[in-house]
Design brief:
Chain lengths: ~210, ~210
DNA sequence: GTTTAATTTAAACGCATGTTTAAATCAGAG
DNA sequence: CTCTGATTTAAACATGCGTTTAAATTAAAC
């Protein structure tokens, strides 16, 4: 194949689709390069290793999403004391903006995040927290302030429950939307799923702590 | 190594621990057989294949848990119209009973379920639904009856959100309890985590559907 | 004790993986 | 055109995987 300056992009595009669909370790470099119509060795030439390719795929989305999400949050807090629903909902626009960057960008990004948290051998978790930890902390702080009746330790657990919901839902979003279409004739796109999950999460995070 | 009639059990014990910790496809038969101190080929001799070993590992827990959970549910519905909280709470006793069968049995079982749910290449989903589908349907039906204001399609999604929460929480329960102990001086066992998550789940599942 | 079936063992098979190599090809500068 | 550095290419490498094989060993029946 002739020299082509977009080899890196072709690899990233093919990789992100396959990673989102089947997970990282279940996707071989040979499958990626055959879909991208590039040579097998070009992955190692351009990215060094499979791990670095995974990070590059995620970074392409995180570099767009994280600053946008932070901006939305700043804007939201400037005008009012936002509710939990508003805080979660402030993520919707930055998420949907990813569809302008790439077709199915929102779904791909969320699925990649889910795969990353589930499969994480540590290198991804480290990569995300060291590169985007500041943005994450801002978000956690805003959530805590919006539900002051929840003690910090309880909030810690509930935010991780929330993370679990999001991650699992997105990792299996394709299968679930298929089942929903077959069983209930409900045809959901990724935005519909996002808008379904937000009230569920907000209710759980804010529910009063029972002593019992 | 001498002939030993408990080879099957040694394999199951080693396999369930490793499967729960690292997932199915990330756990090789060579790792299992070395931890179990049995010959590599004995897995194929006793179980036929890796897939059948996975099913056998899960069946050992499901055969205990599912009937017990069904019994609890029948008992609960006999005396009253149970609330969502009561229905979820009815699972606690069957779950904790698994600790009598094996040390850390509850945690292992929940982690295995989580791994099976994400990694599922179909054979596990098929195995669970064909062998334990009746029990699952009873539970789903009870949940739906306790929240009649939630349409079936919405309930489908919320139950999967719930599954995601449980599965992710249990998969990372070790790390989370450690962090909670360090940051908040909270010392939780698996039962404490289960009792924290139930109100969160019940609130999310039952929250009224907003039209917006 | 001998025979028979079940089990364990070491070795190999076939295949897929990520990575590396060295030659071939390309694009741009002089 | 010629040279140079970047890129692409085909091939091989080393490793790990699930599985199979055939011989060795064990336990039980007679």
């Amino acid at each position: 194949m002739a020299n082509r300056s977009d080899t890196k992009t072709r690899i990233l595009d093919a990789a992100e689709k396959l990673f989102a669909e089947r997970g990282f370790s279940e996707t071989s470099l040979r499958l990626i390069t055959s879909k991208a119509e590039v040579n097998l060795a070009s992955v190692n030439y351009h990215f060094g290793s499979k791990k670095e390719l995974i990070r590059a795929v995620l970074a392409r989305y995180l570099d767009r999403f994280m600053p946008a999400a932070s901006d939305e949050l700043v804007q939201l807090k400037a005008s009012s004391e936002p509710s939990l629903n508003e805080i979660f909902s402030s993520l919707v626009k930055p998420l949907l903006e990813l569809n302008k960057f790439k077709a199915e960008g929102t779904r791909t990004f969320l699925q990649l995040l889910g795969r990353g948290y589930i499969e994480s051998q540590g290198h991804l978790r480290w990569f995300i927290t060291t590169h985007y930890g500041t943005h994450l902390n801002e978000f956690v702080k805003a959530v805590a302030e919006s539900a002051p009746h929840i003690p910090p330790a309880e909030m810690f657990w509930r935010l991780h429950f929330t993370l679990g919901t999001v991650v699992f839902t997105m990792a299996s979003a394709d299968a679930l939307t298929e089942i929903a279409a077959a069983d209930f004739n409900e045809h959901n796109d990724i935005e519909a799923v996002i808008r379904k999950v937000i009230p569920y999460l907000a209710a759980g995070v804010a529910v009063p702590v029972t002593s019992q």
